[in-house]
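FW: tagging you since you asked about this chain on Friday. Here's the raw sequence from the shared folder, copied in full. Didn't touch anything.
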Amino acid sequence: PLEGPNSIALSNKSGNIFFTDSGPFGENVQVNNKGSVFIIDMQQQSIRPLALRCLQSPSGLAFSHDEKVLFVS
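HL: got it, structure written out here
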């Protein structure tokens, strides 16, 4: 189950969708790193984590110009 989806980015090359799941609000995020990044793979019609419950409040996504790197803030 998702904790609190926040940001979204669409890959122009693959058509895949990436999104952050920031985790519950109001907790001490420095102690409870529950944020995640997921990919919705349009070809496989699946959702899978790229980083699962290990990030501190991920809230932004951006691709490098060639889309080889996904930046998470």
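FW: The first strand starts at residue 5 and ends at 10.
HL: agreed, and The mean pLDDT is 89.
FW: great, closing this out.
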